[in-house]
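One such given next:

>
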Amino acid sequence: MKQRKPKSQGLAYKRLPRRALILGGLQAAFIGGLAARMRFMQVDQADEYRLLAEENRINIRLIPPTRGRIYDRNGQIIGQNSPSYRIVMVREDAGDVEAVISKLSELIPLTEDEVERAMTEMRRSAPFLPVTLADQVTWEDISKVAVNAPALPGVTPEVGMTRQYPRYEDFAHIVGYVGPVSDYDLSQIEDPEPVLRIPRFQIGKVGLEAKQEISLRGKAGAKRVEVNATGRVMRELDRQEGLAGADLQLSVDADLQQYAQARLAGESAAAVVIDCETGDIRAISSAPSFDPNLFVRGISVADYRALTQDNYRPLANKTVQGTYPPGSTFKMITAMAALEAGVIGPGNTVYCPGHLKVGSRRFHCWKRGGHGTVDLGLSLKRSCDVYYYDVALRTGIDNISDMARIFGLGVKHDIPMSAVAAGLAPNQAWKERVHGEEWLVGDTANASIGQGFMLASPLQLAVMTARIATGRAVSPRLVRSVNGVEQPSGAGEPLAVNRTNLEYVRKAMFSVSNDRRGTAYRSRIISDEFRMAGKTGTSQVRNITKAERAAGVIRNEDLPWERRDHALFVSFAPYDNPKYAVAVVVEHGGGGSKAAAPVARDIMLQALYNGTPPLEAYPAADRERIKEQQKQLEGDRRPKARPPQKDRA
C-alpha cells in the first residue's frame, strides 16, 4: 500500500519553488543593475573617472579673513584694510621670462632686488604658480600693464588687501603694526592655526595689533577646489566664507593725540592723558615717533638704521616701556604714607637748612640755602626735599612702598600695548631678595623724593594723579568697545585712604600751580572753571660729587644732553571736579617747571576745551607766544600727502 506524505510536508514542498524564484529574481535584478552601473562608470564615463582617479584630488584651501578695523573714540579710522595693487607673473605663460621682465621694467620701475627675488621665487615654485614682481604699485602702473597686456604674456595685475595706518606717526606706539608671518612667529605659537601659513598673511607684530591679534584676525573661511596631480586648480567646488575680525574702538581721541604728538615734537618725551571719570586713556604720546606703514611690507635697511641710531629712540614707547625716577612727583605718596601712619599732621613742621644729615652722609635739598620752616602745604608748593627726608625716615620704606602701590606705582597696568613696565616701588624685602643686601636709611631718604631705586612710567604717574584727584582706584582703559560691545569701565572703587588726608595733598597741589611761590605758577590755567592742580619733578641721571657741590652744581644747560636731568610734571583739572589727569616726562629736559609743566598745561587745556583753547585761558604774559605756537602746531597737524610704500624687505 502506497504511503502518503503528511499534509504539512506537502504544502512545504509546493511552496519551495516560488521562494526560489523570488530570490533568484532579486539576485538577477541586483546583478543586472550592478553590471549596468559598472558599464556606465567604466565605459560611458571612463575618461572622467580616469582623470579623477589618476590625476585629480580635492583640496581644502583657506580663505584669509578680513582683519578687524581700529577706530578712535569718535569713529575716526586708525587702522584699516586698503587695496594693495601688485604685478604677478606666471612662468609657464610668460615664455621668455627675462625678455618679458625687461619689457615690464620699461613701463614701471623695478629694482634689481625685486627682480632677483622674483627670479629666485620662480625657480623654486611650480611653473603655473603666480609670483609677485612688484608690490604696492600705483593705479597708474596697473593701468600701464593692463594696456600693454598683449606684449606682456604671463603678466597680470592683481589687487589684494593690506594694512594701512592713515594717522601715520600719531598712533604708531599705540596700535603698532602688522607684517608677514615669519618662522620666528610660528615658533612662538604652540599650535599655529593653518591660516598663519598662507603666503604673505599678516599678523600683529607689536602694539595693539599684536596684543589683540586673536580678536582682530577673525576666522578663516575655506573653499573646496579640484586640483590635478601637479597642483593646478581645475575648478572650485564650494566655498564657505570666514568670520571677519572684530572692530575695535579705542578710548583715545585722535585729535588730542595728534596735538600731543605735535606739542612734544623736537623732544624725547612722553605724555599721558587719563579721563578721571572712566579711566579712559584720551591720549598716550611718545616722541619722537615713526611711520608704522614702513613696517607693513618690510622696512629698508637705511630707514631702520636711521630709527635705531637716533639718540631719541623713536622705536621705544616711552609712555609704558620707559621707567624713570619720578623725582618730586613722588612726594605726594610720601606725604600720604606719613599722614596715614600718623607720623605727621598738616600743621606739623620741619626745618630745612638746605640739607639733612643721615648717619655720616648729607642729603641735600635742591635749594642750597634751604626753605626754612615748612609744613605739608609749603613742602609741596616749594618742593622742599628735606621735609620728605625727615618724614620718610619716621614713616619707613615699607609704608611708603605700600602707599605707592595703592596709587598705582610699582604695578603693571593691564592695557594691550607692548612692553608695559611694572616700574618699581622698592621695600626692604625687595632689596634683600634682588640685591642680597640690607635696606639702608639712606635708601629711604632717596626713595622719599622719588630717587634711588624708585621707578615709574608716565602711564603710572598719570594713574597716580587720577587716583589722587578722585580718591578712587582709577584704572587705565585703552579699548573702549569690541564690535560695539562696551568694555568694563576703569572708574574703580574708593581707595582705602582717609579722605581728609587726601584733601590736604590735593590743596597743596593746587598751590603748586596757583600760588605765586608755587613751582608751576608760570604754567597755571587762568580760567576759573578749569583751575589746575599739579606737581613739578626733576630726577637726576648723574651723581653730583662733593667737589662739584662745593664749587656750584653745573647747570643742566651746560651739560651734554644725555647727562641732563629728566623733567616731569603731573596735574589734574578742573580742581573742584577733576575731569582729566595728565603726566609729562621730558627726557633730559632739565627742570620740570620749565620743560614739562608748560607742555602738560597746553595738553590739559586742549583736552578741557576739546580743541584749541582761547588765549584768555593762559597767563597774559604768555598769550603772544601761545598764539604763535598755536599757529605753528596747527600747521604741523595738517594731513600731509604720503607716497605709497614700496615693498622694501
